[in-house]
Amino acid sequence: MASKCSLFCVTALLASSLGLSAVDLSSELASGSIWRKDRQNVCSTDFVGLRYMPIDDYTIRLCPRLTVAEADNNAQKKKASLKAKSDLTIGKLEFGETIVRWNRDSNDTMNMLGLVYNRGDDGEITKAEFAKLIKKSIKELDAMTSKVGYVRESKGKGDEDHVGLPGLRHWYWEWADGVLLLEASATEMENGEIRPEFIRLKMGPTPEAIATGGADNFSSGKWMQQNVKKEGGKVYIAGIPMVDQGQKGYCAVATVARVFAYYGADAVDQHALAQLCDTLTEGGTYVHLIEKALNDMGKQFHFLPQILCYSYNCKGGIPSNQLKDFVESYVNNGAPVIWTIDGHMRMIIGYNKSTNEIYYSDSWGQGHEMKPMSLNKAAKMTICLHVIVPTR
Questions:
Q1: Is 140 within 8 Å of 24 (Cβ atoms)?
Q2: Span 216-390: which CATH code?
Q3: Domain limits of the chain?
Q4: Are 173 and 180 within 8 A, CB to CB?
Q5: How far apart are the C-alpha atoms of 96 and 84, rounded to whole Å?
Q6: pLDDT in tens, 86-122
Q7: 110, 101, 98, 99: which is closest to 36 by C-alpha?
Q8: Which of 45, 141, 189, 346 has its CA 20 to 30 A from that of 274?
Q9: pLDDT tens for residues 170-216?
Q10: pLDDT (average), residues 233-254
């Protein structure tokens, strides 16, 4: 049965074709009124006319109108993607991909995450363009909140010292009815230049509402087995958060981000992982770069990344009994298996001995949480298997 949010999403998609104007959230954010609305109210009023889709029953993803994946290789079209994201705004500040979450208990709007820029959707931009977007963001958010956002780094004395720099930068606004956290991240390149990665805005009613779990939140192994469910011959891991990669070629980093979120460390999202793993702008991540990033992060987050097997054939294929043993062993202990096939990465989260099937999940939003496939077919497709195991 479709969720309430899904039904209103259909309404919004139909209304979108009528060419309704952009939605400016300034007044509702400033007053905090959006945080007092339930998902039915928000979907049927605030977001009518916007293009979006459900991630799960409590999360939706607002989609930008134009992405790199939808454009061709013409550089001008890629740059145009930054100018086409006018569906959702705060004043003159325009957002592309935006995630909206509702509280599972109260059903009130819990928080929002808006992408002003991300390399996967928008292509690469210059340092000057990056700095300009950050300054524009700060200006519009200062105006909306009637406050001056303060820089959360200790070094430097103002905006000019923080825009267009490598690393992760933060600006913060808090008032009686809400909080905002603006994050901008860039990678320092070998030639001394920078590669802008993302500019994102976290929005919520309280600091706790936008808090994310870092290294200290990484779960222990004891907790994992509580998520293993059995329904007849079907054995699977419940409670793995969904991530929708959208049109980006972010299947690898989105999959790993889901595993991190499952373990409690949702601060490391697909955009941060794309930066760490040097994901290509046109999409795709080299497996060895993911492995390196996971090895580097293991000590900080208290986990051990393990390579279970590699196919000797680059097109895939391992013995079915080998896949069966790995899947049963790790699923029984509550650890999802990261599954690489030709040109794609997903996770295996269950199995069924009676039907000789595995259950897998793609990072494509609602409807892709758990799907069956014959064990033999899955084994023939397998290129490599990885797991991330907590060490405490």
A1: no
A2: 3.90.70.10
A3: 4-211, 216-390
A4: yes
A5: 9
A6: 578 999 999 988 999 999 888 899 999 999 998 888 8
A7: 110
A8: 141
A9: 899 999 999 999 999 998 888 778 889 999 999 999 999 998 766 56
A10: 86
